[in-house]
């Protein structure tokens, strides 16, 4: 019998493809074209894809598929000025003047910042802190009590009481985050209601963006498709190419995440190496090759939403 680790993941270090990664039932979740109703709480800016997205899907030999409500959702966006300044400071502090090629790395980073400054003003507007908001509420006494009852609830880490998304606007509307979702983490730090109140968590979100130049918020919907994850990232520079993103995909045999480089903006998302990519901005990736995926990334000016399939822990129901 295979161990839990063998069941939940596959080794990324080998070039030998497995016989099969996921059963057909898993793939049917994203290939089924029946539209699931999303109701009034769906992401406002993502209520419908543009004609340009449909055209892009046609160009890469794919189609736009019906959206599914994932179990885990992630939204990441940046304050470009702070983010690139921090990147330059990291290069200066860690490698500056060492004569080991760091001068080239610093030059590349400065060029990235210059490219950002050359982008149109829409970049600054869409990343302005006044253009996003997430309102949270504390769990009710009943939710707190219910999350602590029984062995199963204690075992299933993702079923415990959490802060709840009450409302959102601006950049967050690009994502799949909905009112009623439970807050999982902020910048990959687990947020527990016994450690953060709703007000405290909202203050922490803003301090992350102000101090680090990047904010990642991950939520969960217990009623969502339980092996689907939506990862939304707002490019800090619209002109970023596939190579600039630092995300490497391959066909193994399905389109999967092979590597997330250290300086990748996807380091600040819920995406993981070995995730199977099911769709990008609702464009079906079931039969997509790396070159077509790279074209999609290049053509998407601001928002990239990647839907992935990830197996959950067989006993705890957790992704980790």
TrEMBL record:
InterPro entries linked to this entry? PDZ_sf
Tell me which domain of life the UniProt entry assigns to the organism this sequence originates from: Eukaryota
Query: What is the protein's name according to its record?
Result: PDZ domain-containing protein
Where is region (Disordered) located?
A: 33-56, 89-118
Signal peptide, first to last residue: none
In this chain, composition skew of type Low complexity spans 43-54
């Amino acid at each position: 019998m295979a161990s839990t680790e063998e069941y939940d993941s596959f080794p990324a270090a080998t070039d030998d493809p497995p016989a099969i990664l996921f059963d057909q039932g898993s793939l049917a979740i994203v290939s089924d074209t029946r539209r699931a109703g999303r109701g009034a709480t769906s992401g406002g800016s993502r209520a419908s894809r543009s004609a340009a997205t449909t055209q892009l899907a046609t160009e890469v030999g794919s189609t736009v598929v019906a959206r599914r409500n994932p179990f885990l959702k992630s939204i990441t966006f940046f304050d470009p000025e702070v983010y690139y300044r921090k990147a330059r400071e990291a290069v200066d502090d860690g490698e500056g003047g060492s004569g080991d090629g760091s001068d080239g790395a610093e030059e590349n980073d400065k060029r990235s910042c210059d490219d950002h400054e050359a982008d149109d003003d829409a970049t600054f507007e869409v990343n302005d802190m006044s253009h996003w908001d997430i309102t949270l509420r504390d769990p009710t006494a009943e939710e707190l009590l219910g999350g602590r009852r029984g062995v199963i609830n204690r075992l299933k880490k993702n079923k415990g009481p959490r802060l709840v998304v009450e409302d959102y606007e601006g950049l967050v509307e690009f994502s799949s985050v909905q009112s009623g979702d439970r807050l999982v983490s902020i910048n990959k730090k687990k947020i527990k209601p016994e450690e953060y109140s709703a007000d405290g968590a909202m203050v922490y979100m803003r301090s992350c963006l102000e101090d680090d130049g990047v904010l990642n918020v991950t939520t969960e919907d217990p009623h969502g498709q339980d092996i689907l994850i939506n990862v939304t990232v707002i490019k800090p520079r619209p002109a970023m190419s596939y190579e600039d993103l630092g995300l490497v995909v391959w066909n193994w045999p399905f389109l999967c995440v092979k590597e997330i480089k250290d300086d990748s903006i996807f380091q600040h998302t819920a995406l993981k190496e070995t995730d199977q990519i099911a769709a990008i901005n609702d464009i079906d990736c079931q039969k997509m090759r790396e070159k077509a995926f790279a074209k999609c990334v290049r053509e998407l000016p601001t928002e990239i939403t990647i839907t992935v399939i990830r197996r959950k822990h067989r006993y705890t129901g957790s992704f980790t």
